[in-house]
Specification:
CATH class: Alpha Beta
Helix content: 25-40%
Number of strands: 8
Shape: elongated
Strand order of the largest sheet: 1-8-7-4-5-6
Radius of gyration: 20 Å
């Protein structure tokens, strides 16, 4: 009888933990999205920058912000969070690019761009915005993998420090476990 209990108990425990008890914890800070491929269209550059092709992004992990040129507080927080998350990657920082898709016909003012070295500006088109999703808002940061798939969304958080830490941790985890984007130059 004792032998039967010792043999059956682990099977019952594994069945219970697999089918009945579902852990609710997660390790990611952003929201995982159903991957959507960015269109292969070329976007016009903004503020004197060169046009942006999706092929240019396919070599790196890319943090994308879609916002109007008049950068309000949510947009400014998203720029700060994306900059801090990229800088925190240290030697892997070159594997991460940042893009601001300007959603209107304006040009961002110089104060919004101060301290934003390496930020690419491009005029968003309807196809790119559709790939990001229907609820694009000025404070959200999207993560695009080196294959051109939009895969994560980081919503606006009034606590910029906490948001930057969350994005940084997710990005570090992706860079650590992914060979995608290694060897990216320029």
């Amino acid at each position: 009888m004792l032998l039967a209990i010792v043999c059956v108990l682990p099977v019952l425990a594994s069945y219970f933990t697999f089918y009945v008890w579902q852990p609710q914890g997660r390790v990611n800070h952003g929201t995982l999205l159903a991957p959507a491929m960015l269109p292969a269209t070329v976007l016009a550059g903004v503020g004197g920058q060169a046009p942006l092709a999706r092929a240019e992004l396919e070599r790196r992990w890319t943090l994308v912000l879609a916002a109007p040129a008049a950068c309000e507080s949510a947009c400014a927080r998203a720029l700060y969070v994306s900059r801090q998350a990229r800088l925190a990657q240290a030697q892997d920082a070159e594997r991460v690019a940042r893009v601001w898709l300007v959603t209107d016909s304006g040009t961002p003012a110089a104060p919004a761009l101060s301290g934003q070295e390496g930020l690419r500006l491009a005029r968003a088109d309807a196809a790119w915005l559709a790939a990001l999703g229907v609820d694009v808002d000025a404070g959200a940061v999207f993560l695009v993998d080196p294959l051109g798939n939009v895969m994560m969304r980081f919503d606006d958080d009034s606590d910029s420090i906490r948001a930057a830490r969350g994005l940084t941790k997710d990005l570090q985890r992706l860079l650590k476990y992914s060979a995608l984007g290694r060897g990216a130059k320029g």
